[in-house]
Structure formats: C-alpha cells, structure tokens
Amino acid sequence: MNSVFTANLDRADTPDKCDGGARYVHDLQVAGMLHAVTVRSSVRRGTITSITVPELPAGYVQVSAADVPGVNQISYFKDPCPFFAPGSVQYRGEAVLLLVGGDPAKLHRLARQTIIEYDEIPAIHTMEEALAGDKPPIFGSDNIYIEERFGHGDVDGAIARAAEVFTTTTETGYQDHLYLEPQGVLACPEVDRMTIYVSSQGPHAARKVVAAALGWDEASVRVIQTTVGGGFGGKIEPPMFLAAQSAVAAHHCGKPVRLIYTREEDLLCTTKRHPSRITVTSALAADGSILAVDIDSLFQGGGYSQSCAMVLDTGTKKASGVYHFPAIRVRGRGLASNNPMPGAFRGFGAPQNYFALETHLNALARKLGREPLEMKRALFIKQGDATITGGRYHFATGLDETISAATEAAGYYRRRKALPAGPSTRRGLGQALVKFGAPNSVDSKISLDSRSIGLRKHSDGRIEILSELVEMGQGLHTAFRKLVARHLDLPVKRVSHAPGDTDAVPFLSITGASMSVVLFGATLLEAADKLKARLDEPGEVTILQPARQPDHVFWDATALRGEPFHSYAWGTFIAEVEVDMITYQVQVVDLWVALDVGSVIDRRLVQGQIEGGAVQGLGFSLLECMPRDGFSCSLTDYLIPTFLDAPQVHGLIVETPYPPGPYGAKCVGEPPLVGVGPAIADAVANACGVEIYQLPITPEYLLQRMTKR
Amino acid sequence: MNSHLISFQLNTMPVSVETTPDARLIDVLREHFRLTGTKEGCGEGECGACMILLDDRPTLSCLVAIGAIDGKRVITIEGLRETPGFAILAQAFNDAGAVQCGYCTPGMIMIAYALLRDQRDPDESSIRRAMAGNLCRCTGYAMIVEAIRLAATRRGQSW
Amino acid sequence: MVSQLPLHPCTGREAAAAKAAGAVPYAGGTDLMVRRAAARRTGQEPPLVFLDRVATFRGITALDGALRIGSLTTMAELCSHPATPGLLGAACATVGSPALRNAATIGGNICTASPAGDSLPALYALDAEVELCGVDTNRRLPIDRLIIAPGQTALKPDELLAAIIVSTDTADRFYYRKVSPRLANALAKVSLAVAATVHDQVLLEMRIAFGAVGPTVIRCSEIERQCRNRSLADLAQSARRLADLAAETIRPIDDLRSSAAYRRTVAGNLLETCLHSLCAPTT
Questions:
Q1: Which of A14, A263, A646 sits opposite B93 (nearest CB)?
Q2: Is some CB atom of chain B closer than 8 A to the CB atom of C1?
Q3: Regarding the domain with residue range B4-76, which homologous superfamily does it belong to in the CATH classification?
Q4: I want to staple B50 with a disulfide (CB 3.0 to 4.6 A). Which of A326, B61, B138, C10 is the partner?
Q5: Chain B CB within 8 Å of residue A479 CB
Q6: Which residues of A fall within a CB distance of 8 Å from C273?
Q7: pLDDT of amino acid A682
Q8: pLDDT reading at B114 higher than 50
Q9: So what's the pLDDT on residue C1?
C-alpha cells in the first residue's frame, strides 16, 4: 500500500542550520556567565581519601557532592546513580567536583593542580571477573544488575535428544554515539527558579532530575531544549548529569554556569553501546532442522546500572529474531564493571542480539550447505503466532516483502555464488533478517494519563504542536506537522511546533526507543480529532491528550508476560563486500536495506534514517573500536565512517500498515542500524571462507581468523 | 604568552584583536566576534565542523593559531551566507535532505563552496574525496553528495 | 627576553634565534595545535614563533639534478606541483584530509618525527637530504640522520628545518601504499615506499622504506642489496622470499592501533605486491 503522504515536506529547521544561525547550547552566552570544568577520577575504582584543591581566587568556587542541596542521585534511575562521586568512584572519568569561575584557562589550570587521593579497590575489568566473584562486588552480591529469562518449550529435552548441538559465541565492543555536538548545559538561576538550557533527548526528565538535585518542586525548574546536534540515545543519560551538576553550581554561585564538554571528555565519560558476549546453542534434528534454541546473552555494564536494565530487557525480548522456534530459552544478564559507562544507544540491545542470532543461523546454513534464507524461512513468525512472552503477533508482517525487495535489488540469488574475485580481492554477499519491536510496552496496570501531547489553535488560526519530544535531526517535528495538517485538512505551513520548554509543553516522554511517531503520533491524531470539532471557535483552543497504549497491548511487567512491544518493523539487510587479501581490509561496496515501516509519512526523512542508521551500523561493524576495558579519547583513534567509507545504501521501503499507528506508520529510527553487522559478517564469511564472530571486523581479527584456518 | 595585536580581514571587513598569538582561531571567532556558525566538534582537526576559508582555502579553524593569520583573509559561514553561491548550496542541501542535526552543516557548506569554486562539475568520487575530512553522523553522506551535485547543476555563473 | 623577539621573523636566522630563546616554531600548526591543546587550556605553554614569512623556507625550486622543497611547503602544494617526485606526491596525498593538507607542511611532518609520518617513507626511499638553518651556520644531513627516535630529531636548539633536497634523476619507478584503518583521514598502520631504477628488464637499484613498523622509518638495505642488478623475471620469482625477509627486518609493536603480527604480515604482503607490480611488463 502507498501512503497518503506523497510529497516531502521541507524541514523548518534547515535554513538556520545551513547558515550557522541555529543556536546550540555551546552558542549561548548570558551576562555574568561562569564556566565550569570537571575534575574527574583518574582511577577505576576506589575510596576517595582526600581532595586537595589549590587556593581559589576570588569569584572561583568548587562544587561537589557535599554541596548538593537535594539528592546526589540521578532520580530518573532507581538504582544508585550519583552525579558527583559520593566518596568513592566506580569508573575512570567519574565526576568528582566542578571548578567554577570566569576564565576557562584559569579553571583548567586549577583543575590540573587539584589532587585527589584514593584507596584503590581492585577494579572489575571483564565480564568473567564480574561473574567470578573474586573481587569485591560492585552491585549486590553478584554484580548482576538485571537478569531476565524468556521462552517456551522444553529446550533442555531438545538438546538432550538432538542429533547434533551447534554452538556459536559472538562478541561486540563499545560503540560511541559520536553525535557531532559534544554534551553541554547552561544553568541560569533566577529568583526561586532555575532555568536550564540543555541539549538533551528529554527536557521533562532533565527537569525532574534537576529538581531532585536541588531539593525543589519540579515547577521551580524550567528546562529549555536547545538545538540538538545529534543524539542517537547519547543525549538521554549524560545531559541529566551535566544538568544536575551545573544546576547545583549555579545555585551555589547565584550566577549562570555553562558546562561544555570537550570531545576528549565526551569520549571518556559519556555513555556507549554495551559490549556483549552472546552464546547461541541450537539443537538439531538428524535432517538439520532446528528443534530448539538456547540464547545466553551477557551485556557489560558500567560502575552504575544507569539504563543497563532497560537496554538488556529490550534486547533480550528481541533476541528470538524473526523466528518462531519450536522451543526457545533466552537468558539475559547485565553485569557491573569498572569500565567506561554504557547506556542507551540506537538499537537498544538489539544490534548485539541480532548479530548473535543471525550469525549463528548463517554459520549453521554454511555448515549444512543450505541456502540461508530458505533455511530461515521455515521458521518465520506468522501473523497470529505467539511471542516469546506469551503475547501475539497481531498484525501482518512485512518480512517476506522486505526479503523480496532486497534480494531482487541486490540480485542476491543470481549473484551470491558467482561474484568475481580480483587478483588480490575477494567478494561476498551476506544477509540478515530483523524485526524491531517498538515501543516497549509499559505495565498495563500503569496509567499513562500523566503523559500528554497537545495542540493549540491560536486566535489567528495557527496550529501549534505542544510536545516535549525532541527534534535531534531525525525529522520528528516535520513528521508531526504533516500528520496534524493532514488530519485537520489544513495547509502544513499553518502548523508549527512549539519550542521544547517545560513551561510550555506537557510531560510526555524521553525521545527514544523509536516510539515517537508510532505511539505518540497516534496520540497527536487523537488530539487533532478533538481539535477538529473546535477549529471554528474564536480565540485560542488548547487540547491536551493523554497518552495510552493501544487496545491490543497487555503487558504484565512483573511476570514478563503479554505483548512485549506494540508493533514490529521488519527488515532484510544485504551487504556486498570486497575483502583486500593483502591488507585484510573489508570494504562494503553496496548495502541494501529493505524495511517495513508500516506507512511512510515523509519519504525523504525515512531515507535519511535508513541511510544514516545503516552507515552508523557499518561503523559498528567494521571500524568503531575501543579496547573493551580501556579508552580512546580522541577522534584520531576512535574512527567513524567518512564520505569515502560509506557505501551506496539502497533504502527499500515496504509498507505494511499497522492499524493503531498514525496512518499506519510504524518506526524507522533504530531498525536501519540493527541488521548491518550480521549482514556484513555473513558477506565476509562468504568471501573468505571463515566464520566471523566479532564486531568490529578489524583487519587484525580477520587475519587472525584466516591464519587459524 | 604575551598579548599581541593581530589584524586580519574577517568576512571582507578589516578587524584587529588583542590576544595571545596561540589562541585558536575558532575561539577568537566564536567568543570574541560571536560568530558561532563555526562549530567545534572535536578540537583536533578530525571532524571538519570548524571549517572556514583562510585566503580562500578550506581550513580547520581549531588547528590555527591566531598569530598565523595576521594579514590574511578569513571567511566564515556568516560571511559566506551573503553570497549567491551560499543560497544555491543551502537550497540544494534542503532539497536533497542533506541536513539532519545540522551541527556539521556549516562546515560542509564551506568546503562544498570551495570545491565547486575549484571544480565546475565534480563527479561523485571527487565530491567524496574532497569532503573526506568532514564527518556527519546523521545522514550516511549520500544526501550531502546529492546536494552538492544538485548545486553544481544549478550554480549558473554564481561563483 | 622572548617577548622582544619578532612574532613573525622574516629570515631563517631570526627564526632560529627565536627558537634558541625558547619559542616553539609554528609552521602549519596541524600537529602542534593538537599537542598544545591541553597545555593551551591552562595557558602554560612557551610562546610560538610563526615561520610563514621566512622566504627561504618557502617554495619549490629546481636545482641541478635535484629539487629544493622549502620546509613550509604544504602537502596540498606538493600534491599539485608538477615537479614533485611521484612517490612523494603519492605519499603526501594520503596525509589527513584535504583541509588538513592545505595547512600541514612537509617540514612539520618531518620534525614531528612520528613513526607513522606519511611523507617519511617516501623521503627515505628518495634518499632525501635536509637543509638545516641555524643562527650562525647552516648544514645538511641525510634524512635518516635527522630523525633519531619517535618525536626526536637531531635539530640543535637554535636550528630549524629550512628545506628538503631530493634528487630528481634517479628512480624511474615507484610504489607507495599506506594501510590505515579507514579510507580517509587516518594514521598509517603500515606503509611502504619504494623507488626503483629499471633498465632493460634489469633492476639496477631499489630503495625500500617502511613506515609505522619501527621507532623510525625502516630502510631494508639487505633486501635492496639482494635485489640489485637482478632481472625482473628473476626478482618476481623471489618476491615471496624477499617479502618474508622484510617481515623479519621490520620492528613492529602491538599498540592501540594495530598488532605486531598484523603489521608484520601486511608489510610482507605489501613488498610482495610491490615487487610483482614493478616486475610486471609495462605497456
């Protein structure tokens, strides 16, 4: 089906972004503003025994845990998560104190002269160490932030009966978001109020955190969203820390305080994608068919849990892929370590799990000599099948259509066995299949009434969208304007988006997890339905529409039963690679990404998400690398794809409408990233004749694999 | 380091600034002249967000000490936006969907302007090579390439 | 007093005097500004002396059978100058990104003395010499005598690199390849520069220089000796053996950017490929 939206809409934010007029937080200056510099832990784990700050000149102050008037805790999280080190540190780079004053150079000099002494505690560097228990635990008694199990059927019985048991273990490393705009906050104290300008993915969440840090009611804090120079999940947690720290500092000094990270700091201490190690075991019948699958998924968290539980939870629920196995058991554990802090990142646990499962199945197909897509097809989820949590796939799946679109465009069946090799190069085609559930269901006992999105008709007939959901480049505000204009049958230029300001727009949600359009877009249309009847009223009309989960969703978060997600996007990824046998470097020549996005609201925006997500996935698959227990604090060593590394990405859009979504739309933000890794790994395996069990596929790793053969 | 008076031409206007000669050009532009269209993405010359034209050549302003530009000409995005070439590039960036978060965009436009000045009709591979020092994390680059090709077809005699 | 010295000296002597007095020479700034970043934020760094007005450090001039390349010549200028030896031009084109090459100078690339400096293997393979300018005396050194260790040169406190001299009439074939983790704007993990002279299907002379596989660029004089005066057909036969010898000659390390094992294997592969391409019949 083709969407009702035929033309692309020009984004309202493009002109200012082109001519340098768009104001990012680093571009703001206010009278009397002070700067803040963070003094950080230089050790991974220890108790702070002393802090010696040099004598501070007049007008300079230090601010630390002792100065927090409210709670020294990021109140967005339930588990301990202090924003100033509370007498001990859990990772290198943890903020111990801020130095605040007028001259940044002087602050840096003072920061360098500040001496912090520690009683070091043996740091936990690896997941093995976290599980071994020979070092004092970081969290609880076992270092496990979260453990979840899902599944159905008799997996142990199937393994015991199997003609053969096939096991693979895959590993993935850190990935940094590498939004181009480093983190930053400006906190401005006013009489009995605090205004925070922040580059974040959730102004109301930041307000809640700042209010708790100051010990104030939330109404006394105003958060104004600045233009966001890229998020990808990386502006969910870290801005809360910067906002709380700078608010405490601004409160302490009675002056505006600006805290801007250098890239070095940003790489050192902001969140990253969780490293993973995932073992997949399948029980095979004598004919090679799969009787059961057992998935054991370990995610390496940091020194505080932050969103480890959320990431592990959504990733684990997605771990069964596009398949309905006769029996399956998924066990996911998020572990504490004293390594750099992971957190939310585009894909939210899915890229690691899809790499594990698709790599397992692709390796199995190669081992059995089967065509992988045909082998997989026997197991595909069909409409009406049960989810691994006992819910249902209620709606049509677009998986087959994405396979057709991608295989035809890539000439997959025709070319995969007949790719030309050069004198010193080899070529390969590889594929991976994904489904991406979004949004994550909320427990059905919890009302979403306190969360709302709104519309305001001004007396001059302009319509304003009242939403805290953040435009961070993805095009959300453009999509919302189109939805509202279409629903109200008004020219889109009459519809604008209110600025992100907690005084002006109601509490709704963090912007993330690919839920904004599919869930809140539908809520927005409910608001539009109400407004439509009142469009002719004189004066101003404001509608606030509470969010609610669609009727087909029931979720019991205690028992982990029901619909884990509202809707599913389906996708097929095909990668064509050329491997240089002199240097073992992998070049992706073409990447086909076919996605079932429900229906398209703006084709250009959807293509932008597909192309950008796919290239970010390519970076994760081939380039982006940090030592698993270490650091790359420079863009000289942390390499993301450039113009020359990015392949031709062929975005192929399939539309299988999701009835509860706005005009049938599902999600598109995260899915383009999640299948890239396994598709490239499969292509490399086909080109080189060795299985690939690690991302990124560095030339060093490939050489090692090919030497062992 | 002692302060010196450094004089240069900024967006066609003669200017002087009293500063230590090792101050970074990007800081002088942003903090002293309040020209915040030049962005800092890395501070080590790896991302291209701080691209300006120094004596007409694309230059990374985070790697330039202010003492090195005495007597030279600097053009920032705020200067470029007065030109017809900018208007064509900005429209092409809009039409191709080349702008998402926008943080890399002024730097992209600066170097694209210089590329199209030096090559009337660059092919895709020339564009990708010329832009290889400018990072974008949102678009995956293809739409930016498309924008520059579009601008090349629409440029006429504008620059 | 340093502050009494000119910020923008116009002669090599003045510049050398400023350096002798403690000023840090600034050429293109691309490496210096990154290294100074942390220190700059604290305002604790020695002053800079800007070299760009020293005329004798600029320009590319033809000498008799040689080329004098002013140390302030940028990578972009070298890439586009018609007189630049092909090997050196190819190497300079792999430095950083286009905008970086507009600022980065050949003199800076040499004096940084990084094992991964992109122009260095080419300069070693061309048997380049350097012209040093002091307050009182000038002198010339072969390039391999200038660079003594990572980040260390034989420059005296009052000396600056004025120019690079490369012979223009020796090698007629060259090979260059830089292996870096990304296609653009990345440091070398291994690089190989080879200059060769072939006459009548016989290799008369060959100079082989590897980058990023030792504390400084590594010349393979034993392999060069074994290759001398051999027929191309014979050389092609020995390519793998010579490549294995190269892998033993270099001194790679494990670091954040790569492994010694990878560098060793790839260095050998590069030399083997190079030998095959040099020996291939030219059309």
A1: A14
A2: no
A3: Beta-grasp domain (3.10.20.30)
A4: B61
A5: no
A6: 424, 582
A7: 98
A8: yes
A9: 39
A554-558: long-range pairs with CB below 8 Å, 24+: A554/A391, A554/A444, A555/A391, A555/A441, A555/A442, A555/A443, A555/A444, A556/A443, A556/A444, A557/A442, A557/A443, A558/A443
Q: Which of A602, A519, A196, A570 is nearest to A376 (CA)?
A: A570
Tracing tokens 């954040």 back to the chain, one arrives at: C256
Residues A216 and A345 both lie in one domain: no
Strand-strand pairing, C230-231 and C218-219: unpaired
- Would the pLDDT of A494 be above 90? yes
A102 touches chain C (CB under 8 A): no
Assign domain B83-154 to its CATH architecture.
Orthogonal Bundle (1.10)
Model confidence pLDDT, tens digit, residues A409-450: 999 999 998 898 889 999 999 999 999 999 999 999 999 999
Give the model confidence (pLDDT) of C218-247 as tens digits: 999 999 999 999 999 999 999 999 999 999
Question: Between chain A and chain B, how many beta carbons pairs sit less than 8 Å apart?
Answer: 168
B contact chains, 3+ CB pairs < 8 A: A, C
> What ranges in A340-393 are assigned the alpha helix state H?
350-368, 372-377
pLDDT single digits (tens) A342-352: 999 999 999 99
Whether residue A73 is found in the same domain as residue A187: yes
**Shortest Cα distance from C41 to chain A (angstroms)?**
5
| Chain B residues 25-54 within an 8 A CB cutoff of chain A | 30, 34-44, 46-47, 49
Across the range B7-27, mean pLDDT stands at 96
Q: Which fold has domain C173-279?
A: Enolase-like; domain 1 (3.30.390)
Q: Has the ipTM of the complex gone over 0.90?
A: yes
Burial label for A463, CB within 10 Å (0-12, 13-18, 19+), is buried
Neighbour order of strands in the sheet with A541-546:
A495-497, A463-466, A452-457, A541-546
pLDDT of residue C6: 87
